[in-house]
Amino acid sequence: MYRSILVGTDGSDTAEQAVRAAAELAAAMQCRLTIVSAFAPVSKSRLRAEGRQAPSDVAWAVNDREDVDATLEAAKASARTVGVSDVWTSARDGDPASGILDVAEELGVDLIVIGNKGMAGGKRFLLGAVPDKISHHAPCSVLIVETS
Which of 27, 96, 127, 134 has its CA 20 to 30 A from that of 117? Predict the structure, then answer.
């Protein structure tokens, strides 16, 4: 039924639950799983400080995406432990919901999996929660996983 599934993560415990649910579904359906994480670039002052503190042989690895790259690698490893062999990752600068929706459109995914955290009650209208925005603007089916 699904050829490709996309899941968003910010590395939080609730997002990890959504990643696991998406990975289990992707493994069962033997389809591609794309993991997306949005980020705000690490500040230039932090990069300079870390670059000065890092040993010269690893200083090249200090970059403005280091936090999101670590989050994506952890999620990818988690997906592989449940049997997903085709895992892609994508880091997007900016708003999480927009990043997820952009990647979903670019890749033509069949399903977006997202955790429900932040969706309940009046806060969703005030905060513009990620799951709320995705559920209203997705170019494909959406599975909202109970994570709270």
Answer: 27
- Find all residues with CB under 8 Å of 14, minimum gap 6, and list them: 115, 117, 147, 148
Contact of 91 with 100, CB cutoff 8 Å: no
Model pTM greater than 0.90? no
Q: Where are the domains of the chain?
A: 4-122+130-145
The one-letter amino acid at 56? S
Give the other-Cβ count within 10 Å of 41's Cβ.
15
d(CA 121, CA 16): 22
Mean pLDDT, residues 120-147 taken together: 75
CATH architecture of the domain 4-122+130-145 equals 3-Layer(aba) Sandwich (3.40)
Pull the structure tokens for residue 47.
């990069």
